[in-house]
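FW: tagging you since you asked about this chain on Friday. Here's the raw sequence from the shared folder, copied in full. Didn't touch anything.
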Amino acid sequence: MSKRSVLVVAHTGRPEAVRSAQLVIERLSAAGICVRVLDREADDIGCAGVDVMPSNAAAAEDAEVVMVLGGDGTLLRAADLTRTSGTPLLGVNLGHVGFLAEAEREDLAATVDRVVTRRYDVEERMTIDVTVRRNGTVMGATWALNEASIEKAERERMLEVVAEIDGRPLSNWGCDGVVCATPTGSTAYAFSAGGPVVWPEVEAMLVVPISAHSLFARPLVVSPRSLVAVEVLADTPRAVLWCDGQRTLDLPPGARVEVRRGAEPVRLARLHLTPFTDRLVTKFGLPVTGWRGRVRQPATPSPAEEAPQVTGVETIGGGTGAGPAASDLAGTDGGASGAQSG
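HL: got it, structure written out here
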């Protein structure tokens, strides 16, 4: 039987992430699991007995899981290492919102124990493939888990683009840029640009203009089978393409960015089967005061259990009658205030 291995990726610019990585390595090693770290992070982490791996896709090959210690940016960086191998990512949030992370810093020891005992589920998230052409020639190709954003490169002038869906022109926009996002990315840049929140299990692509000067500049939700293209007009300043804030490419006037559903999904390890609604409430601190949920129906009592009917007697709370039903006092099946993040 081959030896179990886990890749640990950390935001080594944060002392807390380095300390957390050291704790994770110690506990995994004590459980007999081989630990890998990236060569660009090994000196900062400074643990003996680990396998130092090149910072490329080979680092995650044959690993059970990649534990990511940091924020969403660190997890997106790790996703670039794991997409081809299909190794699931398990994020521990040491940042701010941390929408992609599965666990919080205070749950670190328990999270490691779940990895050791293989008590986690894996889900797949849709990605997008991005191709850049100019005059029919491919200039570059990349991918994204969250979004591909076409942005102006010069602050003083608007970017002029034309959007195309499935080979048909849709609209010109004078704008700061256009975000093409996945459902996973709907709570990232697309959300900040005014796009809709899309539940992760929905398969779709989002097109969100940024600060567009146009009567028709609404966020669009299109089929996952669609081909979305954004062309930088010839008389506009140059633009820049960003994918997940990690990979970038300059776009000269006349460049065409094509976005389609990705051939390879990203796999995320899940410890909690928490509804996405609860994740939204927790991460954004949404107010849910007054929510009661479905009212429980009282069970029909047997004849022997029915209370005798007494009339004309005042109850302790004032008024007459039997008082409120038990279902009115119990109220709900559960509240959102107890929602776990994840």
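FW: Residues 24 and 112 are 7 Å apart (CA to CA).
HL: agreed, and The chain has a mean pLDDT of 87.
FW: great, closing this out.
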